[in-house]
Amino acid sequence: MKKIINTDQAPAPIGPYNQAVLSGNTLYISGQISLDPKTGELVQNSIEEETTQVMQNLKAILSAAGMDFGHVIKSSIFISDMNNFGKINEVYGTYFSEDTAPARETVEVANLPKFVNVEISMIAVNPDQE
């Protein structure tokens, strides 16, 4: 069964997609960028602040589905400049325990929506959910 997950604590989709889809006990979260859900404005003062906003948006969606970062099994990180990898990775790493961190890939791309510097999507599984 497919259940749509949406929360006003994360930015509304800017296209024909949902924030996340729950199928059984697996949550598929659409790529999040640094839009502040309260203002609708991009947070881009620094790559660290931008990444923090992305992670907070992901956290809000996980929470709306009754999950947290401990349930994440896979992350995909898209960045516009690989030179920012270290700073992005440092912020990202604060949300996970190193011994249980999810699988992940990080890919440099030519452009991202709204010309942001980082976009992250996730897959999470809650074995206690039906």
TrEMBL record:
One of its GO terms (molecular function) is deaminase activity. One of its GO terms (cellular component) is cytosol. It comes from Sinomicrobium weinanense. PANTHER family: 2-IMINOBUTANOATE/2-IMINOPROPANOATE DEAMINASE RIDA (PTHR11803), PROTEIN HMF1-RELATED (PTHR11803:SF58). This is RidA family protein. Belongs to the RutC family. InterPro entries: RidA, RutC-like_sf, YjgF/YER057c/UK114.
